[in-house]
Amino acid sequence: MRRITYFGETDKGLVRSNNEDIFLIKPELDFCLVADGMGGAAAGEVASAIFAESALKIFSNLKQRSNEDLNLLVQETFQTANSEILRDIKQNPNHSGMGCTAELLAFHDKGFVAGHMGDSRIYRFRNGALIQLTKDHSFVQKQLDQGLITAAEARTHPRRNMILRAVGIDKHPALDILKGELQPGDLFLLCSDGLSDMAEDTLIKNCLAGPETIIKKVISLIDLAKTAGGRDNITVVLAGVT
Length: 242
What we know:
- The chain contains 7 helices and 10 strands.
- By secondary structure, the chain is an alpha+beta fold.
- The chain has a single domain, classed as PPM-type phosphatase domain (Phosphatase 2c, domain 1).
- The strands form 2 sheets. Strands 1-10-9-6-7 form a 5-stranded antiparallel beta sheet. The protein has a 5-stranded antiparallel beta sheet with strand order 2-3-4-5-8, covered by helices on one side.
- Helix 1 (about 45-60) packs antiparallel against helix 2 (about 65-90).
- The longest helix is centred in the first third of the chain and has 25 residues, at about 65-90.
- The radius of gyration is 17 Å and the shape is globular.
């Protein structure tokens, strides 16, 4: 019988005056999430909170945990949060422009289902190898896919924070759904771009490969981002399979 161990932390970083990120871990419901609010003065933290509240409400009604059940719940979470954010904007015009990127990871007995929208990320560390499971919905990623820029250029591109998809921006945004099987020792990382923009994958992999507990690994990852400048809010969640 597989067991999932979770830990998460968020930090406003060294530059921002507030934190628009949020994370939620619900071991009893076997899911976790990270949301990164966007909009600044337009209340990005409200958007990310709406996403977390939507997930909690929908997963609290979970009766069964098959692959198909989780697939539907993940989709419903993103759809509901998207509608709720748009409704909030209609009621509060000063919130116009807010939204959030979001990662939602849910487990069943044999595997996982994840939802992804934006440039926050989900990684999996398995047998010494770190794989980015998600692909950024960003202008820079599109440029990379078209071969117009290199990976090194992407890290310092002036438009690297331009997002092409997010929760609460369009009425019917496209959602990436990821599915896979679990192996003992798998370690899943959910993070906002406050980590991935600051720390290269090699540094992240080295941290995850160490013998420390997941609590210490989360703290070390946040420290990595802050040591590199901490220009954005930093949120990290780890989910380990045993």
